[in-house]
Amino acid sequence: MAKRENESYSIQDLMKSFIKENNLSKGMQKLKVEEAWNALMGKGVVNYTTSVRLQNKTLVVQLSSSVLREELSYGKEKIIKMLNEELGEQVISKLMLV
């Protein structure tokens, strides 16, 4: 019978190493960005959001309301800052509202 090591790891550490070993970090970032958008922007904005995509360091948000798109365009820098703070790293450098 093989001898077991008594080292214990947290699930968070195991998930991080699994994501790193399998090159899944970009996909996970895309999911986290969409979750952060939904959490920070509120129900009113999310109702008019049709898609949220992360391409390189550009966040592309498709909105069904042109009025809302114009309103959000005035606060692009603030939105980028809020999303990056929520994600805990500098993931987004540009925001495109389509």
From TrEMBL:
This is DUF721 domain-containing protein. It comes from Polaribacter marinivivus.
